[in-house]
Design brief:
mainly alpha, 2 domains, 5 helices, 76% helix, elongated
Length: 112
């Protein structure tokens, strides 16, 4: 969380000087592509390279370029360790929540 806020605050200063409105819009679109690739656990460089090459070649099937569809046709680009980390984090969260609920029930039972 801390690294994200540091990156954002540094970025805010740098992004003030993108040049003009159109450049700012292009930068926002690129950042949107990057964050979508990260959210879908893709190798960002591989994803962007393929998408940009396809766009430059004149391909217009944009739906197949969306990260969730692209991921199905390029399984080698999925960062499996991120999927495992997310699953482990969800399991830890469920365990901690169950533990807190048990403690709360025990506390209520002692008070009654």
């Amino acid at each position: 969380m801390a690294s994200t806020s540091v990156t954002t605050s540094i970025g805010r200063k740098n992004w003030l000087f993108v040049g003009n409105v159109e450049a700012g819009e292009r930068a926002a679109q690129l950042m949107s592509l990057v964050s979508s690739a990260k959210r879908h656990d893709l190798d960002v460089w591989f994803y962007l390279k393929d998408i940009l090459e396809r766009l430059l070649a004149g391909e217009t099937d944009y739906k197949s370029m969306l990260p969730d569809f692209w991921k199905k046709s390029h399984p080698e680009a999925v960062r499996a360790h991120r999927v495992e980390e997310r699953r482990d984090k969800a399991e830890r969260k469920q365990y901690d929540r169950a533990k807190r609920l048990i403690k709360a029930k025990e506390k209520r039972a002692l008070q009654a």
